[in-house]
Amino acid sequence: MKMNRRSFIVGSAAVTGGLALGMRLPPFGPAVVRAADGSPEINAWVVIRPDDTVVIRMARSEMGQGTITGLAQLVAEELECNWSKIVYEYPTPGESVKRKRPWGDYSTGGSRGIRTSHEYVRKGGATARVMLVQAAANQWGVPASECTVANSVITHKASKRSTTYGKVAEAAARLDAPKDVKLKDPKQWKVIGKPVKRLDTRDKVIGKQVYGFDLKLPGMLNAAIKESPVFGGKVKSFEAGRVASMPGVKKVVQVGDSGVAVVADTWWHAQTALQQLPIVWDEGPNAKVSQATIMAQLQEGLNAEQAFVGNRNGDVKAGLAAAVKKVEAVYFYPWQDHACMEPMNATARFTADKCEVWVPTQDGEASFAAVLAASGLPADKCEVYKINLGGGFGRRGAFQDYVTQAVHIAKEMPGTPIKLLWSREEDMTQGRYHPIMQCKLVGGFDAQNNLTGLHMRLSGQSILKEVRPAIVEQQKGRDPLSFQGVFDSGEHSFGYTIPNLLIDHAMRQNHVPPGFWRGVNINQNAVFIECFMDELAEAAGKDPVEFRRQFMKDHPRNLGVLNAVAQRIGWDKPAPKGRYRGIAQMKAFNSFVAAAAEISVTGGNRVKVHRIVAATDCGYAVNPAQIERQVSGSFVYGLSALFMQEHTVKDGAIVEKNFDTYQSMRIAQMPRVETIILQSGGEPWGGIGEPTICVAAPAVLNALYKATGKRLRSVPLKNHGFVMV
Amino acid sequence: MIRLTINGKTHNVDVDPNTPLLWAIREQVGLTGTKYGCGVAQCGACTVHVDGTPLRSCSVPVGAVAGRKITTIEGLAQGGKLHKVQQAWIDHEVPQCGYCQCGMIMSAAALLATKPKPTDADIDQAITNICRCGTFQEVRKAIHAAASKA
Q: Is the dihedral of CA A392, A395, A400, A406 positive or negative?
């Protein structure tokens, strides 16, 4: 299966209906929209070639998470097409603008790819099927209701006639689309829910897959860039003359007011010259910021008067005042970079009447908006071509800084395509980091060990305040996303009903830009609440699972995943000798997730995670094999974060610049992950890419307490001397 | 001029001998299956074989490998037939984003060349590549599956 990245041409005049052999064409049907190769578009989602190849068009980006295959399954289910003849392509954002967004939202984040587009893409498939069948029926002069369809073959049994989609596509494309199509009952699904093979594997194992980093264009030059290491700093001066005669160097340009780039024949030449280029920065006041000043600011927020409320039940003050016993703890979660394997990059070509950008992006429309803004050209003179992503994890969606940079550099050399690649060091020090957060939790018990109240106070960065200030303004200063997993309602709602509850957030911003890091705010919130639930259970003298269950009567799906992992790991029986268990659960992105971990500790600090049982209730599982891969992979992302990853600030700049100081798990450290998929069905559907990550850390932390007797309340564990083996 | 033998073909590249082999392969020879991930021999996305030994090409000066036999991911398949590691990768659907996978495959192929039936411990020791999508569970399965093939 190959991706067809060509953009396509709109308009019926380009190609005549030469394939319409013997068809009865309705005289005044709508004009046919055609793909670049002339094949007719049945609708925005489906193009059918004469050889029966089905081209499925998707706005969402494939970055490894499998969304393209899943979305193709949804279309194919209703289209009744031959799965082995499916290819996919990305419609360009420019096309989307021209055609008033027929493919919907391009944004591929928030685990939304499938869960928020399943209905319209299935309708796209169903509509196309109805039109194809109608075209065959018209040709045969029989009622469409007498025709059956399977595997791209339409059959009229009574007259023993059959034809294929490729043969009737031209006629179908001329028909009016039916207004209302009925979607299948999930019980009838044949493709959805099956572990079909991904559409995009082969090129990845032979070195043929072209990522943004690999793009080649005629006459292309390469650029390397350095932004002010201190966020908010500016370029004061640089001595271009010092590197002008170095091998391959073509130009040294200032990019905006905070970056300098070297353009050369190869990236290695550009990067080598950049490293030797003397740059003087005006670092500004942020150069005075240290890790200690930020930690002090967060600590102050833990007890501050003013805070935004995310969840409230009863009267927490009274509940805690009535307690005969209190438990209190302070937790910490650091900045972390996404560290996509493919560093940020974009390629731009600018002329006075056209600006084109090739970019691995999670959001083609956000890239398009960045091109418009940076080029100063109108929408009809801009275009974005989406290239394969070497990971995204939230870095490549809302943030399009590399696109802006590439366009600015290309404007300095009109007509020449400029491929801008970031070094790993640039990637790690110019991140949009997981927000830094402290959390103080206080719980109270009465004499019978009943919980009388719980206060969870978050203190730290809001992402939305920086990235989506309009939402924060609308919420009167509150960032609702700060409460992911513990919020009072919605797709990230709290999984416990606790008497006298208050969860609030003292917003403490700083100069380090926060971003959406796979899972976003559920990561720290799950550590805070799920480790503290274990602390409360211990104080109450109860088993952690039993303790949680008393607050989960109104949360059956949270309970469902919790019970599933408890049962599979054998929670009711003792762990094998020398092994210790921990558990955690959460709801996020409308999915319910739980994990149970089994670990051992040797030499006092060497932690082996042997086994993880993970349960996900995502409503409907479109491709269970792909879900298993995303779930097991989530523990690499989540446990790397728990054990190894932290960015710190010194003199206003990020200290950890590469994988030597910002480590990531290797295969030797990989636990065995057993995935349980629960399908409660119904609406809304849940996401897959992100939710599971958040239960990795608390499940292991809770097991680590059992093993060591130590409550480790700050991430990463390397700071406590623990290593993952 | 430095003479490189890559995937059985000779290339004369005109670069500073200190240029990392990775960038000579990508930008002079034009083979982009070998990836840049860190530049400091941590992640292994740039793994190639030099005389059969897996090396991190980002940290090997091109001048040091002149005349040696270099194999990249593009040269792993022989006579139009995928290497058994590549086939196992497809059968087990190992790649997610796929960016690190060429390096991972080159590491696995080198392991099987020296240890045809590796144990889990052998795999742990030989495969030290970083994968941020977290494909390790499938990587292990696929290596064992490839080892079981003749």
A: negative
CA A38 to each of CA A16, A175, A189: distance values in angstroms, whole numbers, following the listed order: 9, 17, 32
Instruction: Read off the pLDDT of each residue in A709-715 and give the average, rounded to a whole number.
Output: 98
Which of A391, A666, A667 shows the shortest C-beta gap to B133? Answer: A391
Which of A197, A267, A672 lies closest to B27 in CB terms? A267
Question: Rounded to whole angstroms, how far apart are CA atoms A342 and A362?
Answer: 13
Please name the residues in contact with A148: beta carbons below 8 A apart, sequence gap of 6 or more. A154, A155, A157
B61-81 pLDDT tens trace: 999 999 999 999 999 999 999
Q: Which residue has the tokens 């072209």?
A: A210
CATH assignment, B2-74? 3.10.20.30
- The domain boundary residue, chosen from A175, A204, A233: A204
Token reading at A580: 């210790």
Length of chain A: 725
Instruction: Indicate the pLDDT class of residue A29, thresholds 50, 70 and 90.
Output: low
Q: How far apart are CA A81 and CA A79, in angstroms?
A: 5
For the purposes of burial, counting CB atoms within 10 Å of the CB of A702, is it exposed (0-12), middle (13-18) or buried (19 or more)?
buried
Q: Find the Cα–Cα–Cα–Cα dihedral A367, A370, A374, A380, rounded to 10°.
A: 70
User: What's the structural domain count of chain A?
Assistant: 3
Q: Which of A399, A421, A443 is the last residue of a domain?
A: A421
Given CA atoms A468, A473, A479, A481 in this order, what sign does their dihedral have?
negative
- In chain B, CATH 1.10.150.120 sits at 84-147
Prediction pTM value: 0.95
- A298 touching chain B per CB within 8 A: no
Minimum-distance CB partner of A64 among B26, B33, B96: B96
What is the spatial distance between Cα A691 and Cα A111, in angstroms, rounded to a whole number? 8
Q: How many other C-beta atoms lie within 10 A of the C-beta of residue A384?
A: 31
| CATH number of the domain within which A447 lies | 3.30.365.10
pLDDT digit string, tens, across residues A80-102 = 999 999 999 999 999 999 999 99
Q: How far apart are CA A359 and CA A472, in angstroms?
A: 30
Q: Work out the angle between the directed axes of helices B101-114 and B136-147 (0-180°, nearest 10).
A: 40
Work out the pLDDT band at A30, boundaries 50, 70, 90.
low
CA distance linking residue A616 with residue A86, whole number of Å: 29
**Distance (Å) from the C-alpha of residue B67 to the closest C-alpha of chain A?**
22
Tokens at A467, concatenated: 């990235």
Q: Please tell me whether residues A577 and A478 are part of one structural domain.
A: yes
Cβ atoms within 10 A of the Cβ of A387, count? 25
| Residue of chain B whose Cα is closest to the Cα of A221 | B27
Segment (H or E) for A560: helix A556-569
| A618 contacts A591 by C-beta, under 8 angstroms | yes
Residue given tokens 């080649």 in the structure block: A216
Residues of A in contact with B37 (CB under 8 A): 341-343, 424, 659
Q: What is the ipTM of this complex?
A: 0.98
CA distance B52 to B33: 18
Does the structure show a pLDDT above 90 at B117? Answer: yes
Structural tokens at position A226: 């350095």
Cα separation of A484 and A494, whole Å?
A: 8
User: CA separation (Å) from A98 to A102, A370, A378, A380, A387?
Assistant: 10, 17, 12, 8, 21
User: Residue A536: CB partners within 8 Å, gap ≥ 6?
Assistant: A327, A443, A451, A454, A547
Interchain CB distance below 8 Å, B16 and A247: yes
Q: Are residues A233 and A312 in the same domain?
A: no
Which two tokens mark A594?
């739980």
Ramachandran bin of A682, using left for φ above 0, alpha for ψ from -120 to 50, beta for the remaining angles: left
d(CA A205, CA A190): 29
Model confidence pLDDT, tens digit, residues A200-239: 999 999 999 999 999 999 999 999 999 999 999 999 999 9
A295 SS3 class: helix
